[in-house]
Write a structure and sequence with these properties.
Elements (H helix, E strand, L loop, with lengths): L3 H10 L1 H23 L1 H4 L3 H31 L5 H21 L1
Helix pairs in contact: 1-4, 2-4, 4-5
Length: about 100
């Protein structure tokens, strides 16, 4: 029986699945940021607290999936040319920056 790590590794092998993880992350991140922008229009009390929680959860899910897509892309890249190596380093750096600045 395959574990969670093997399933993630298999997901990163296919470009279509890799792109779907990235799209899910970007859509979730955008939805969370839009929910944050709507906070002044919500009002006060329980609605404000609920909308804040929804915005934070959606943003967190989006950051997770975007960082996951970048890490999977970096670790599943094949080839030993210098351009591939630079691309892998750029993806790893971008994933770390996403984690640092968006969480």
């Amino acid at each position: 029986m395959t574990g969670f790590g093997e399933k993630l590794w298999d997901m990163g092998q296919s470009p279509g699945q890799h792109l779907s993880v990235l799209v899910v992350g970007l859509v979730s991140l955008l939805t969370g940021r839009l929910a944050t922008a709507m906070l002044p229009a919500v009002g006060s009390g329980g609605a404000l607290a609920a909308m804040t929680m929804v915005a934070l959860v959606l943003s967190g899910i989006g950051v997770f999936f975007v960082a996951l897509a970048l890490f999977l892309g970096a670790y599943t890249a094949s080839g030993d040319s210098w351009t591939t190596t630079v691309w892998r380093i750029a993806q790893l750096l971008a994933a770390v920056l996403v984690l640092v600045f968006l969480i």
